[in-house]
Amino acid sequence: MINFIQLLLKPISVKLQESIRNAVQICDDNSLEHIHIVENNQYIGTLSKDQIEELDPELKISEEKKSATHCSIDAEEKLILIWSKFIQNKISSIAIQRDNVYLGSLSFNDFIRVYESEFNIEGQGSWIICVNNKINYSLSQLSAIADEHHSSIQHLFQIESENNEEIMVSFRLNTQETENIINSLNRHNLEVILVHNSNEHQEPLRERYDELMHYLNV
After folding, report:
1. Is the Cα dihedral 22, 101, 42, 65 positive or negative?
2. At the top level of CATH, which class does the domain 123-198 belong to?
3. What ranges do the domains of the chain cover?
4. 216 or 176, which is more confident?
């Protein structure tokens, strides 16, 4: 699993003495919504593009360090916990570290590829993530909604909130036609917080990794 993550990490970051202008430019050049602050291979925090676009472009990143969020995770962490970190922090990329050393940035889109490769999930489909009160949550109801719209759930897992009152449910459907399904979920008080379409034409990550290992004779 971790080999797949390392394959997709991007060494993109900004230093404390760089300007806000430069940080915005890096975001634009790399189609980023968030950028990590890194100094001497140490992760310091994360700024959103929306956040820094409102600032004086001549300011230094160091002057906005206090407003940065801290969203990083160890490279050896379980996939479920990485997924949870993405969603709970509403962030498009996460800082990956090992032994407190910054390795790079992992986007949510690339993480989905890692997750699907790890669990051998293939083909066209959609991920839907929703939140529901733990007392009212029903897996059978979720399955019935999928059946009603002629789709099926290929993969599902759930994470309880810290206060133990809500549950976050992530599931993959075998369709990208999700509008009516989302409407049904909302009618049943299942609040949809994210929808992500998986691209069936995307180069398989496992094949990329195997080719790289063959090239390196590993």
Report:
1. positive
2. alpha beta
3. 2-114, 123-198
4. 176
Highest mean pLDDT among 34-38, 107-111, 193-197: 34-38
- Parallel, antiparallel or unpaired: strands 125-133 and 166-173: antiparallel
2-114 CATH pick, 3.10.580.10, 3.90.950.10, 2.40.50.140, 3.40.640.10 = 3.10.580.10
Q: What is the pLDDT of residue 90?
A: 86
Q: How many CA atoms lie within 13 A of 141 on its CB side?
A: 12
* pTM of the full structure: 0.79
DSSP string, 150-169: T--EEEEEEEE-TTSSEEEE
Instruction: Check if the beta carbon of residue 91 is closer than 8 Å to that of residue 68.
Output: no
CA-to-CA dists, residue 150 to 14, 40, 147, 181, 185, angstroms = 47, 53, 5, 10, 15
Confidence class for position 201, pLDDT limits 50, 70, 90? very low
Q: d(Cα 49, Cα 163) in Å, to the nearest integer? A: 30
- Contact (Cβ atoms closer than 8 angstroms) between residue 15 and residue 36: no
Q: What percent of the chain has pLDDT over 70?
A: 89
Within 8 A by CB and 6+ apart from 195, the residues are 126, 127, 128, 129, 178, 182
